[in-house]
């Protein structure tokens, strides 16, 4: 686009008003927030996610006061008990309480999901912003790196990295995020490219604003909506990926309970103790469902492209 | 046009090397002194381990192994790189030689050639199933927008997206394989591509394909049916559709002739996005159903540190992905002239 | 042994004196066939009875059909000189015989050789006489040239480039190999070594054809097609094709020395896990396969389709203490009373009931019951579950319970980690039981499952663990140097806990340096007492071999050669008598 050289202050201000907000106007966010609140399903699912997260955080309290079991308390004389008063969701192959383990498993599954999204979003957004803003060889180099990461089928990377870094919840988040940041980087870069060509950007730059200010105060807020949307849609995905990795033996290993590794053990006992398979599977399903529906609601409310 | 394609192709080369380097480093620094494919075996002495690793060339420094495998050393052997490799230079990636498996000595490309068709059979069938089911689902949802049926289909698609694939596989096997057999009903086999010895005909292969492809298609189904629905809705509200109606065209013709065709075109984009996942995406399904695909091969060989096979598969998959993306980019450029000149 | 031992012995004699063809030629076909079948039928009846304990029923073998075996480990190579895993060994064992084989209980029997040789007067020389008219599946004769060539691949320096995993072992003990005439093969050891025949004359050294591989350069043998498609073999079956990741298909070898198999084809199916094996046994997709403990009751419920066969095996689970004083774990476990205390605190009967579904036996010492002549069920001390004794021992050793409930001594808390391989459910269960049962006596043990390759590396090289828990298995010979001898504390050895005892070293060395079984027995009794007292690596349980066999399969189980302790993997001398009742 043409560089107009110096522009008068008034003209710049007029351009800003015409092109639309360069700072996130209060109205945009609160308007989106209103739309979200109006979406009943979205609200319900969002609340459900909050409840699950709260339960996960308060797992020790639940152990002590509600179920009266710790996730590792074994009872070898009472293995494979069906759901009953003593064990609301039954007991597993070592006599441990399924419900307690599901609650503690939520810590792992939800924790990994949120942490992964946070890391992937931070790295991806940073890369996307820099690449989109500076353009030319910086853009080329960064996007080629993204290409490398996106060209290796994710599964292979997971396998290799899980062998390399013995997975704890934190390293697992890093592993999954290392594959996911690429998609987010591309997304953010695309948004940046479309935003930066808008008039207000030229105007602001021509009045002498520095790079960092432009990125931080003008680009980032405009890119934020798409990041929020992407984040909320990814959480559900990551929960599924993490469960699959645990199932393959590449993720969190026993004795730490996670929904995925509870299923790995349980498949051998499916025939006589089916609930050991049903409950963790159901838990994953409900959580991911809630996350997805909430993500959809967020997108419906916040996605600028849907306006 | 050609310039654009060439430019993109050239840009892909460093990406390929980046892929190979990353994979190689990952697998090199995890293997320690493990002998590929050998088990916990008391009669295996440390001198045997050292000898076998030396035979396989695993005791050389990592950059020497990398240069050898990529064929860079061979390519430049006249420039003196042969010296690094101790005189013996082998062909490598640059020459099209993917090497041999460290476990059974067979050419890696032969392995890939044997297993890749199985994976493609699975993933392509899953995609076809996804398309075939999601179009009617999406169209019906759009046409009967707001009805109970629409809500049901929406719920179904959203649910489908939330089900863990491996869990679904286990449940299906238990139901359609073991339980159906115990109840005397016609039952489905729980592993493999075909029945050994007696199978191999089309019916047998379809029967084996049914469960794994269905599980795999679940995810596609959910996204695509939603997309088709919203795309259909958008098209139905377009001016040209209103015009067609105003002209007196039958509703059915309006729907299927005009609206549907245009609504489905963007679906092609989505399918294109799935192409990179064709190779590795089916891993979990392959493992649960014992499907002899390339994902499962890479998984098993990675755990046994069969360096050459894992490198070969990863590189091959990456090449497919890059080629796929390149093709897609070129097609877009053909369709949308604005992209060419950016 | 079957319920009709006479019939079996007669059949055994038949095999020893004449090959089937010789017999026919001498006696005239009709009579010969009847007589042979009489002996054969009684043998088969004995087999069928031993498995089910029913009165003798004359079961005549049906010709034709196929057998599908399932396994949950992948087959890696198909040539005997490269393999080291059991899944590959199973397939290779069906295609390549060694000089000797074994009965179910481990007793050696002749295969390609005419009899099990005794060592010459010097105690070092073993002379094998090959059967007459041995043929390869392509019709060429099998002579001692092939046998010599086979052993050269492992022993001769010329073939160092071949990735044989057995070279180190055989070159240590064998002094020379030679083939003085086409029917004779001679192996001479460097010193008297009791396990020689067991280690170096069985399936692991299956004879390969010199006319196929003899002219191949040593470096090229590792990558030769023979490793994936062994076109010429000498065993019960010959190779047809290998669909990797799915199955290996074999067909009957009409030139087999022991007679033609009743089966036309044999399929080994590779399945992803134990669940699938159990499922497919139930649906009949496979006829025969190993059953994991959690699935046994379920498979038994399908008794109309599958029989379940169980027998003792020399496979066991154990854990080892870190005994290197320079490592933190070593400081905790230096006192053998402490080691004993921890062992007393384990309720192994409960483990067997819950983790192994009652399909294992509590170990009394390092030697398994299947090593019948060396096993001492009264080895001392006897470790039964005794929590009080454990606590007393720990108190006496100076480990007193601190305020947090965890014992400490000189300010050091009794805390450590135990590593085991991830993905093995039984082992993961065991270490979690450790955690619980040792917490009950004030000891904090944290389970840490790790990937198998790293576990192997830890045990053999790195050795920074506090404690590891793993499974192991013994061959037919009771020698246990691999685990206890101090020379195996060198990097690469399996004595990962760094246990060193000159007394035990001497016992182990003496026991393999004599061929007198009585002397060996006394030494192994001493070994069991010493290891039990020192408790460097307590043996937890001895496992069971559990297999499911489809009801249509006959001649697989029962008798002393049927499926059993030493005939479950590569060594299956009864294979040619197996048939399927429906002939399909």
Explained architecture:
The complex is a heterotrimer of chains A (307), B (342) and C (584). By secondary structure, chain A is mainly alpha-helical. Chain A contains twelve helices and no strands. Chain A starts with 8 loop residues before the first helix and ends in a 5-residue tail after the last helix. Mean pLDDT of chain A is 79; it is low at 1-13. With 342 residues, chain B is mainly α. Chain B is built from 15 helices and no strands. Chain B has helices at residues 2-28, 46-55, 62-70, 72-75, 108-143, 148-160, 165-182, 202-236, 239-246, 251-274, 277-280, 283-288, 294-303, 307-335, 337-340. The model of chain B has no long low-confidence stretch (mean pLDDT 79). Chain C is an alpha+beta fold and 584 residues long. Chain C folds into two domains: 5-30 and 313-398 and 449-543, Dipeptide-binding Protein, Domain 3 (Dipeptide-binding Protein, domain 3, Roll), CATH 3.10.105; 36-45 and 61-309 and 557-580, Periplasmic binding protein-like II (D-Maltodextrin-Binding Protein, domain 2, 3-Layer(aba) Sandwich). Chain C is 33% helix and 20% strand. Chain C is built from 20 helices and 21 strands. In chain C, a hairpin with a 2-residue loop joins strand 5 (174-181) and strand 6 (184-189). In chain C, helix 1 crosses helix 3 and helix 2 crosses helix 3 (29-52). Mean pLDDT of chain C is 85; it is low at 1-58. At the A-C interface, loops of A face helix 14, helix 16 and strand 17 of C.
């Amino acid at each position: 686009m043409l560089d107009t050289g110096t522009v008068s202050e008034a003209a710049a201000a007029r351009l800003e008003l015409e092109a639309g907000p360069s700072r996130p106007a209060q109205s945009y966010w609160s308007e989106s927030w209103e739309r979200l609140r109006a979406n009943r399903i979205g609200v319900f699912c969002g609340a459900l996610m909050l409840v699950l997260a709260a339960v996960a955080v308060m797992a020790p309290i639940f152990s002590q006061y509600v179920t009266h079991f710790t996730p590792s308390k074994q009872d070898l004389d009472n293995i494979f008990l069906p759901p009953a008063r003593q064990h609301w969701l039954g007991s597993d192959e070592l006599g441990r309480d399924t419900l307690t383990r599901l609650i503690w498993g939520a810590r792992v599954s939800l924790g990994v999901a949120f942490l992964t999204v946070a890391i992937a979003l931070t790295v991806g957004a940073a890369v996307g912003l820099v690449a989109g803003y500076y353009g030319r060889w910086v853009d080329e180099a960064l996007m080629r790196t993204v290409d490398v990461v996106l060209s290796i089928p994710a599964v292979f990377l997971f396998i290799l990295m899980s062998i390399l870094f013995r997975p704890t919840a934190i390293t697992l988040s890093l592993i999954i995020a290392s594959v996911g940041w690429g998609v987010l980087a591309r997304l953010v870069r695309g948004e940046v490219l479309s935003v930066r060509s808008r008039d207000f950007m030229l105007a602001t730059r021509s009045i002498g604003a520095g790079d960092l200010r432009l990125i931080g105060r003008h680009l980032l807020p405009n890119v934020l909506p798409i990041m929020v949307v992407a984040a909320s849609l990814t959480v559900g995905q990551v929960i599924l990926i993490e469960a699959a990795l645990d199932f393959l033996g590449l993720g969190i290993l026993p004795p730490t309970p996670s929904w995925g590794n509870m299923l790995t053990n349980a498949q051998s006992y499916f025939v006589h103790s089916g609930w050991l398979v049903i409950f963790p599977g159901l838990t994953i399903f409900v959580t991911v469902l809630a996350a997805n529906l909430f993500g959809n609601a967020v997108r419906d409310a916040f996605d600028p492209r849907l306006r | 046009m050609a310039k654009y394609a060439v430019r993109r192709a050239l840009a892909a080369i460093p990406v390929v090397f980046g892929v190979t380097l990353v994979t190689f480093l990952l697998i090199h620094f995890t293997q320690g002194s493990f002998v590929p494919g050998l088990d916990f075996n008391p009669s295996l002495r440390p001198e045997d381990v050292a000898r076998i690793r030396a035979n396989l060339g695993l005791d050389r420094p990592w950059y020497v192994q990398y240069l050898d495998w990529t064929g860079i050393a061979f390519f430049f052997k006249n420039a003196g790189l042969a010296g690094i490799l101790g005189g013996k230079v082998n062909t490598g990636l640059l020459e099209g030689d993917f090497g041999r498996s460290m476990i059974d000595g067979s050419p890696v490309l032969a392995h890939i050639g044997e297993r890749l068709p199985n994976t493609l059979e699975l993933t392509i069938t899953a995609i076809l199933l996804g398309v075939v089911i999601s179009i009617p689902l999406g169209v019906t949802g759009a046409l009967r927008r707001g009805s109970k049926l629409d809500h049901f289909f929406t719920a179904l698609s959203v649910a489908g997206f939330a089900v863990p694939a491996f869990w679904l596989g286990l449940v299906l096997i238990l139901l359609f394989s073991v339980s159906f057999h115990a109840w005397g009903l016609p039952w489905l086999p729980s592993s493999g591509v075909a029945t050994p010895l007696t199978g191999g005909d089309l019916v047998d292969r379809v029967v084996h394909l049914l469960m794994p492809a269905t599980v795999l298609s679940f995810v596609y189904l959910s996204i695509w049916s939603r997309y088709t629905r919203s795309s259909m809705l958008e098209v139905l509200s377009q001016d040209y559709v209103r015009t067609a109606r105003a002209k007196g065209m039958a509703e059915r013709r309006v729907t299927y002739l005009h609206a549907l065709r245009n609504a489905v075109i963007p679906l092609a984009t989505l399918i294109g996005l799935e192409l990179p996942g064709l190779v590795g995406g089916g891993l979990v399904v392959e493992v649960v159903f014992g499907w002899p695909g390339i994902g499962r091969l890479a998984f098993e060989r990675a755990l046994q540190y069969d360096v050459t096979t894992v490198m070969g598969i990863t590189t091959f998959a990456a090449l497919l992905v890059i080629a796929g993306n390149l093709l897609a980019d070129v097609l877009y450029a053909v369709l949308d002239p604005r992209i060419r000149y950016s | 042994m079957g319920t009709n031992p006479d019939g079996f012995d007669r059949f055994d004699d038949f095999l020893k004196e004449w090959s089937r063809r010789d017999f026919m030629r001498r006696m005239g076909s009709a009579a010969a066939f009847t007589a042979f079948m009489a002996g054969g039928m009684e043998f088969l009846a004995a087999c069928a009875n031993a498995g089910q304990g029913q009165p003798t029923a004359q079961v005549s073998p049906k010709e034709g059909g196929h057998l599908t075996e399932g396994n949950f480990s992948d087959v890696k190579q198909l040539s005997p000189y490269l393999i080291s895993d059991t899944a590959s060994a199973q397939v290779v064992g069906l295609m390549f015989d060694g000089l000797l084989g074994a009965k179910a209980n481990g007793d050696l029997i002749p295969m390609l050789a005419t009899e099990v040789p005794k060592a010459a007067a010097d105690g070092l020389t073993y002379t094998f006489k090959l059967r007459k008219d041995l043929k390869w599946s392509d019709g060429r004769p099998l002579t001692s040239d092939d046998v010599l060539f086979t052993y050269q691949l492992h022993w001769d320096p010329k073939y160092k480039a071949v990735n044989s995993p057995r070279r180190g072992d055989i070159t240590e003990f064998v002094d020379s190999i030679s083939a003085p005439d086409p029917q004779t093969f001679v192996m001479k050891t460097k010193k008297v070594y009791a396990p020689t025949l067991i280690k170096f004359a069985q399936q692991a050294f299956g004879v390969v054809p010199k006319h196929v591989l003899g002219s191949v350069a040593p470096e090229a043998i590792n990558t030769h097609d023979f490793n994936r498609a062994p076109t010429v073999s000498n065993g019960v079956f010959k190779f047809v094709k290998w669909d990797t990741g799915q199955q290996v298909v074999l067909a009957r070898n009409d030139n087999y020395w022991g007679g033609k198999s009743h089966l036309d084809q044999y399929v080994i199916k590779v399945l992803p896990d134990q669940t699938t094996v159990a499922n497919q046994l139930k649906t009949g997709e496979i006829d025969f396969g190993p059953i994991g403990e959690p699935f046994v009751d379920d498979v038994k419920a399908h008794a109309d389709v599958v029989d379940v066969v169980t027998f003792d095996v020399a496979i066991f689970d154990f854990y080892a203490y870190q005994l290197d004083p320079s490592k933190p774990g070593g400081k905790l476990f230096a006192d053998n009373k402490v080691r004993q205390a921890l062992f007393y605190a384990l309720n192994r009967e409960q483990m067997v009931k819950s983790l192994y579904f009652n399909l294992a036996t509590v170990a009394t010492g390092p030697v398994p019951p299947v090593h019948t002549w060396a096993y001492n069920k009264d080895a001392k001390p006897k470790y039964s579950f005794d929590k009080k004794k454990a606590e007393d021992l720990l108190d006496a050793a100076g480990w007193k319970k601190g305020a947090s409930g965890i014992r400490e001594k000189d300010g050091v808390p009794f805390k450590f980690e135990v590593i085991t391989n991830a993905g093995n459910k039984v082992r993961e269960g065991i270490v979690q039981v450790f955690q619980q049962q040792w917490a009950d006596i004030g000891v904090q043990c944290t389970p840490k499952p790790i990937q198998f390759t790293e576990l192997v590396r830890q045990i053999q090289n790195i050795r920074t663990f506090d404690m590891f828990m793993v499974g192991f298995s013994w061959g037919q010979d009771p020698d246990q140097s691999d685990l206890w001898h101090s020379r195996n504390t060198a990097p690469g050895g399996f004595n990962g806990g760094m246990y060193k005892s000159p007394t035990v070293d001497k016992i182990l060395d003496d026991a393999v340096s004599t061929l007198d079984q009585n002397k060996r027995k006394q030494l192994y009794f001493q070994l069991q007492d010493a290891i039990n007292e020192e408790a460097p690596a307590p043996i937890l349980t001895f496992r069971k071999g559990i297999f499911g066999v489809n009801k249509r399969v006959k001649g697989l189980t029962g008798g002393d050669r049927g499926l059993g302790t030493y005939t479950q993997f590569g060594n299956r001398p009864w294979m040619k008598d197996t048939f399927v009742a429906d002939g399909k």
